[in-house]
Design goal:
Elements (H helix, E strand, L loop, with lengths): L5 E6 L6 H22 L11 E5 L10 E6 L8 E5 L12 E6 L4 H14 L6 E6 L2 E6 L13 E3 L2 E3 L35 E6 L2 E11 L2 E6 H29 L1
Parallel strand pairs: 1-2, 1-3, 3-5
Antiparallel strand pairs: 4-5, 6-7, 7-10, 8-9, 10-11, 11-12
Helix pairs in contact: 1-2
Length: 253
Protein backbone atom coordinates (compact mmCIF):
# COMPACT_ATOMS: atom_id res chain seq x y z
CA UNK A 1 0.00 0.00 0.00
CA UNK A 2 1.16 3.52 -0.72
CA UNK A 3 2.29 5.66 2.19
CA UNK A 4 -0.56 7.42 3.97
CA UNK A 5 -0.32 11.09 2.96
CA UNK A 6 -0.18 14.21 5.07
CA UNK A 7 -2.52 16.91 3.77
CA UNK A 8 -1.12 20.30 4.74
CA UNK A 9 -3.54 23.23 4.63
CA UNK A 10 -2.11 26.77 4.52
CA UNK A 11 -3.92 30.10 4.06
CA UNK A 12 -1.64 32.52 2.22
CA UNK A 13 -4.35 35.19 2.10
CA UNK A 14 -4.47 37.56 5.05
CA UNK A 15 -8.27 37.60 5.03
CA UNK A 16 -8.48 34.37 7.02
CA UNK A 17 -7.11 33.99 10.54
CA UNK A 18 -5.21 30.89 11.59
CA UNK A 19 -7.96 30.15 14.13
CA UNK A 20 -10.50 30.08 11.30
CA UNK A 21 -8.29 27.72 9.31
CA UNK A 22 -7.92 25.46 12.36
CA UNK A 23 -11.69 25.30 12.84
CA UNK A 24 -12.30 24.50 9.16
CA UNK A 25 -9.53 21.88 9.15
CA UNK A 26 -11.06 20.15 12.15
CA UNK A 27 -14.50 20.09 10.50
CA UNK A 28 -13.14 18.76 7.21
CA UNK A 29 -11.07 16.11 8.99
CA UNK A 30 -14.29 14.99 10.73
CA UNK A 31 -16.13 14.99 7.39
CA UNK A 32 -13.50 12.84 5.69
CA UNK A 33 -13.21 10.31 8.51
CA UNK A 34 -16.92 10.04 9.35
CA UNK A 35 -18.91 10.95 6.23
CA UNK A 36 -16.77 10.45 3.12
CA UNK A 37 -15.11 7.26 4.36
CA UNK A 38 -18.53 5.77 5.07
CA UNK A 39 -19.13 5.54 1.31
CA UNK A 40 -15.67 5.54 -0.23
CA UNK A 41 -13.54 2.62 0.96
CA UNK A 42 -10.38 3.78 2.77
CA UNK A 43 -8.50 0.64 1.67
CA UNK A 44 -9.14 1.41 -2.00
CA UNK A 45 -8.95 5.20 -1.76
CA UNK A 46 -5.95 5.24 0.54
CA UNK A 47 -5.89 9.04 0.61
CA UNK A 48 -8.91 8.93 2.93
CA UNK A 49 -6.55 7.66 5.64
CA UNK A 50 -4.61 10.92 5.44
CA UNK A 51 -3.72 13.12 8.35
CA UNK A 52 -5.17 16.57 7.70
CA UNK A 53 -3.22 19.34 9.41
CA UNK A 54 -3.09 23.13 9.01
CA UNK A 55 0.05 25.26 9.21
CA UNK A 56 0.62 28.99 9.50
CA UNK A 57 3.05 29.12 6.56
CA UNK A 58 4.28 26.98 3.68
CA UNK A 59 7.75 27.03 5.26
CA UNK A 60 6.39 24.94 8.14
CA UNK A 61 4.95 22.23 5.87
CA UNK A 62 6.84 18.89 6.07
CA UNK A 63 8.50 17.83 2.83
CA UNK A 64 6.40 15.49 0.71
CA UNK A 65 3.04 16.78 2.00
CA UNK A 66 0.00 17.14 -0.20
CA UNK A 67 -0.21 20.92 0.04
CA UNK A 68 -3.54 22.75 -0.11
CA UNK A 69 -3.31 26.55 -0.20
CA UNK A 70 -6.04 29.15 0.19
CA UNK A 71 -4.80 32.08 -1.88
CA UNK A 72 -6.02 35.58 -2.64
CA UNK A 73 -5.86 34.71 -6.36
CA UNK A 74 -5.06 31.56 -8.35
CA UNK A 75 -4.01 30.98 -11.95
CA UNK A 76 -7.45 29.93 -13.27
CA UNK A 77 -10.93 31.42 -13.36
CA UNK A 78 -12.26 28.67 -11.09
CA UNK A 79 -12.59 28.75 -7.31
CA UNK A 80 -10.18 25.88 -6.92
CA UNK A 81 -8.49 22.89 -8.52
CA UNK A 82 -6.22 19.96 -7.70
CA UNK A 83 -3.47 18.45 -9.77
CA UNK A 84 0.02 16.94 -9.40
CA UNK A 85 3.28 18.87 -9.33
CA UNK A 86 5.06 18.95 -12.69
CA UNK A 87 8.48 19.64 -11.16
CA UNK A 88 10.24 19.40 -7.82
CA UNK A 89 8.95 21.96 -5.34
CA UNK A 90 10.35 23.16 -2.02
CA UNK A 91 7.62 21.24 -0.19
CA UNK A 92 7.39 18.07 -2.34
CA UNK A 93 8.94 16.17 -5.25
CA UNK A 94 7.58 16.05 -8.78
CA UNK A 95 4.36 14.06 -9.07
CA UNK A 96 2.91 15.03 -5.67
CA UNK A 97 -0.82 15.85 -5.48
CA UNK A 98 -1.69 19.40 -4.46
CA UNK A 99 -4.63 21.81 -4.52
CA UNK A 100 -5.13 25.57 -4.77
CA UNK A 101 -8.20 27.51 -3.67
CA UNK A 102 -9.12 31.10 -4.42
CA UNK A 103 -10.39 33.04 -1.42
CA UNK A 104 -14.14 33.58 -1.30
CA UNK A 105 -16.62 34.08 1.52
CA UNK A 106 -17.54 30.38 1.16
CA UNK A 107 -13.89 29.32 1.23
CA UNK A 108 -14.54 26.48 3.72
CA UNK A 109 -16.98 24.84 1.28
CA UNK A 110 -14.42 25.13 -1.53
CA UNK A 111 -11.73 23.74 0.77
CA UNK A 112 -13.94 20.78 1.69
CA UNK A 113 -14.71 20.24 -2.02
CA UNK A 114 -11.04 20.14 -3.08
CA UNK A 115 -9.75 18.11 -0.12
CA UNK A 116 -12.43 15.45 -0.71
CA UNK A 117 -11.52 15.15 -4.39
CA UNK A 118 -7.79 15.32 -3.70
CA UNK A 119 -8.06 12.31 -1.38
CA UNK A 120 -10.36 10.21 -3.58
CA UNK A 121 -8.64 10.91 -6.89
CA UNK A 122 -5.19 12.35 -6.08
CA UNK A 123 -3.51 11.48 -9.39
CA UNK A 124 -6.59 12.08 -11.58
CA UNK A 125 -6.47 8.49 -12.82
CA UNK A 126 -9.71 7.29 -11.25
CA UNK A 127 -12.45 6.84 -13.89
CA UNK A 128 -15.94 5.39 -14.22
CA UNK A 129 -17.63 4.37 -17.47
CA UNK A 130 -21.11 5.28 -18.65
CA UNK A 131 -23.30 6.02 -21.66
CA UNK A 132 -24.17 9.62 -22.62
CA UNK A 133 -26.41 10.25 -25.59
CA UNK A 134 -25.84 6.74 -26.89
CA UNK A 135 -22.03 7.07 -26.80
CA UNK A 136 -19.62 5.37 -24.42
CA UNK A 137 -17.73 7.74 -22.15
CA UNK A 138 -15.38 7.70 -19.20
CA UNK A 139 -15.93 10.14 -16.36
CA UNK A 140 -13.20 11.34 -14.05
CA UNK A 141 -14.25 10.69 -10.44
CA UNK A 142 -14.72 14.11 -8.81
CA UNK A 143 -17.37 13.58 -6.11
CA UNK A 144 -17.91 17.22 -5.16
CA UNK A 145 -18.50 18.67 -8.64
CA UNK A 146 -22.12 17.58 -9.31
CA UNK A 147 -23.41 19.37 -6.17
CA UNK A 148 -20.77 22.06 -5.77
CA UNK A 149 -23.04 25.09 -5.29
CA UNK A 150 -23.15 26.61 -1.79
CA UNK A 151 -26.89 25.94 -1.44
CA UNK A 152 -26.20 22.19 -1.33
CA UNK A 153 -23.51 22.26 1.37
CA UNK A 154 -24.07 21.41 5.01
CA UNK A 155 -22.67 22.46 8.38
CA UNK A 156 -20.23 20.71 10.69
CA UNK A 157 -19.66 22.72 13.88
CA UNK A 158 -20.86 25.86 12.05
CA UNK A 159 -18.38 25.27 9.21
CA UNK A 160 -19.90 25.03 5.72
CA UNK A 161 -18.69 21.91 3.89
CA UNK A 162 -19.47 20.47 0.48
CA UNK A 163 -21.94 17.75 -0.35
CA UNK A 164 -20.38 14.86 -2.28
CA UNK A 165 -21.57 11.98 -4.41
CA UNK A 166 -21.25 8.32 -3.43
CA UNK A 167 -19.83 5.59 -5.72
CA UNK A 168 -23.43 4.72 -6.69
CA UNK A 169 -23.59 8.06 -8.53
CA UNK A 170 -21.76 6.31 -11.39
CA UNK A 171 -24.16 3.33 -11.55
CA UNK A 172 -25.51 2.52 -14.99
CA UNK A 173 -29.11 2.23 -13.73
CA UNK A 174 -31.20 3.78 -10.96
CA UNK A 175 -32.14 1.59 -8.01
CA UNK A 176 -34.55 2.51 -5.20
CA UNK A 177 -33.38 3.27 -1.66
CA UNK A 178 -29.88 4.14 -2.89
CA UNK A 179 -27.80 7.03 -1.59
CA UNK A 180 -26.39 9.00 -4.51
CA UNK A 181 -25.01 11.92 -2.49
CA UNK A 182 -24.33 12.35 1.20
CA UNK A 183 -27.16 14.82 1.80
CA UNK A 184 -29.54 12.89 -0.45
CA UNK A 185 -30.18 15.88 -2.70
CA UNK A 186 -28.98 13.93 -5.75
CA UNK A 187 -31.62 11.32 -6.53
CA UNK A 188 -30.23 9.27 -9.43
CA UNK A 189 -27.02 8.43 -11.31
CA UNK A 190 -25.32 11.30 -13.14
CA UNK A 191 -27.88 13.84 -11.95
CA UNK A 192 -26.57 17.39 -11.75
CA UNK A 193 -27.77 20.01 -9.29
CA UNK A 194 -27.83 23.68 -10.30
CA UNK A 195 -24.29 24.90 -11.18
CA UNK A 196 -22.98 21.36 -10.82
CA UNK A 197 -21.01 19.50 -13.47
CA UNK A 198 -18.94 16.44 -14.30
CA UNK A 199 -15.99 15.98 -16.68
CA UNK A 200 -15.74 13.20 -19.24
CA UNK A 201 -14.23 11.92 -22.48
CA UNK A 202 -15.79 9.97 -25.31
CA UNK A 203 -14.02 6.62 -25.61
CA UNK A 204 -13.41 7.22 -29.30
CA UNK A 205 -11.80 10.64 -28.60
CA UNK A 206 -9.65 10.39 -25.48
CA UNK A 207 -7.66 13.44 -26.58
CA UNK A 208 -10.64 15.75 -25.89
CA UNK A 209 -12.21 16.68 -22.53
CA UNK A 210 -15.84 17.69 -22.08
CA UNK A 211 -17.91 18.96 -19.20
CA UNK A 212 -21.66 18.66 -18.69
CA UNK A 213 -23.18 21.45 -16.57
CA UNK A 214 -26.59 22.33 -15.23
CA UNK A 215 -27.12 26.07 -15.72
CA UNK A 216 -30.46 27.76 -15.02
CA UNK A 217 -32.17 24.40 -15.13
CA UNK A 218 -30.70 23.46 -18.53
CA UNK A 219 -28.04 20.85 -19.30
CA UNK A 220 -25.11 22.37 -21.21
CA UNK A 221 -22.15 20.46 -22.69
CA UNK A 222 -18.82 22.26 -23.10
CA UNK A 223 -15.64 21.26 -24.91
CA UNK A 224 -13.04 22.35 -22.34
CA UNK A 225 -10.09 21.15 -24.43
CA UNK A 226 -11.08 23.65 -27.11
CA UNK A 227 -11.31 26.44 -24.52
CA UNK A 228 -7.86 25.52 -23.15
CA UNK A 229 -6.39 25.58 -26.67
CA UNK A 230 -7.93 28.99 -27.34
CA UNK A 231 -6.54 30.35 -24.07
CA UNK A 232 -3.07 29.08 -24.97
CA UNK A 233 -3.39 30.75 -28.39
CA UNK A 234 -4.40 34.04 -26.77
CA UNK A 235 -1.38 33.77 -24.47
CA UNK A 236 0.99 33.20 -27.40
CA UNK A 237 -0.51 36.16 -29.28
CA UNK A 238 -0.16 38.36 -26.21
CA UNK A 239 3.51 37.39 -25.82
CA UNK A 240 4.19 38.12 -29.50
CA UNK A 241 2.51 41.54 -29.19
CA UNK A 242 4.60 42.38 -26.13
CA UNK A 243 7.79 41.41 -27.96
CA UNK A 244 6.80 43.53 -30.96
CA UNK A 245 6.01 46.51 -28.74
CA UNK A 246 9.35 46.18 -26.97
CA UNK A 247 11.11 45.93 -30.33
CA UNK A 248 9.36 49.04 -31.62
CA UNK A 249 10.04 50.94 -28.39
CA UNK A 250 13.74 50.05 -28.43
CA UNK A 251 13.94 50.94 -32.11
CA UNK A 252 12.81 54.49 -31.36
CA UNK A 253 15.41 55.06 -28.64
Amino acid sequence: MANVPLVAIVATTKRISFNEVQKATKAIDFQIKNHVSKYWDKQIYFGLQASIVCYESIQQVPYGSWLVTIDEQIDTDSYGYHYVTEQNETYAPKGTPYARIRYDRIWSLILSHEVTELLINPYLQNFRYADIGGKKVRLVVEPSDPAQFRDYGYLIDDVLVSDFTTPNYYDLVWTPNTQYSFTGQIKKPLELLENGYFSFQYLDRLDVWWQMWKVKGQIVTRNISEVATQNKSYTVVAIILIILLLFLYNGRK
